[in-house]
Structure formats: C-alpha cells, structure tokens
Amino acid sequence: MTSDDPNQYPGGSPQPVQPPYQGGPPGPPPPPGHGYPVYGVPRTGTEDDALGYWSLGLGVSSIICCFVPFLTGVAAIIVGCLGVFAANEGRASNKVLSIIGIVLGAASIILNVAGFAFHLFSPLLSFW
Predict the structure, then answer these.
(1) What is the mean pLDDT of the chain?
(2) Which H or E run contains 64?
(3) Which sign, positive or negative, has the C-alpha torsion 34, 35, 37, 43?
(4) Are 55 and 84 in contact (CB under 8 A)?
(5) What is the pTM of this model?
(6) Collapsing DSSP states into helix, strand and coil, what is residue 57?
(7) Cα–Cα dist 103/81, whole Å
(8) For residue 9, what is the DSSP state?
C-alpha cells in the first residue's frame, strides 16, 4: 500500500467504529402507564382525558350562558383542577384544555359578579 491509498489508516490500525444507535435510554424500560410507550405502542387517550374536554365545555358554556355561571363556572373549575391533577400524574394528556376551562370558568364568575354588582343585567332581569 502506498501513502496515497484512502484505505490505509494512520498508524496502521483501523479506527474504532461505534455501533449503530438502537434508540431509547440505556437501562430498564420505564413502568407502564407513565406516559411512555409500552412495548412500542404509544399511549392512547384514557378516561381521564375526558376531564379536560368537560372542563373546556363547561367553561365555554359558562361564558355563553350568562345567567347560570355559578353552576357551570364552578363545575368547570372543579373538573379542570381534577384534569390538571390527572395530567400531572401522567393519567391524562390534555392539561392545556383543563387550564383553559379553569380560566373560562373563573372569568365567567368574575364577570357575572361584576355585572350584578353594577346592575348591568337589570334590563334583562325585568322580563323575569
């Protein structure tokens, strides 16, 4: 071999070759149900994911229905808190929807208390 040969290694010995990447962290796999795929199958929605959807729906309805905010607004806050706790424990994957439901429920309660305090709803209540 000559010095112009591209197959010749400097020093006469081949360079070490890294094995191909196998994926995943080294060590044992995480326990099932903690947000990681189990046996290569991604985690799907659970019944705790419904808490986020319920919180969002109750929050939106508490904003739209201006005479029943205490019923739906408080329910949106309670269900949203349960959804956030479930997401923090890894049992749900839609924490953002729960937070939005909490914010909408609280906003509707605050707006309606201010509306009744300043008599903004008195023309509407005269029909009742």
Answers:
(1) 75
(2) helix 50-64
(3) positive
(4) no
(5) 0.59
(6) helix
(7) 11
(8) P
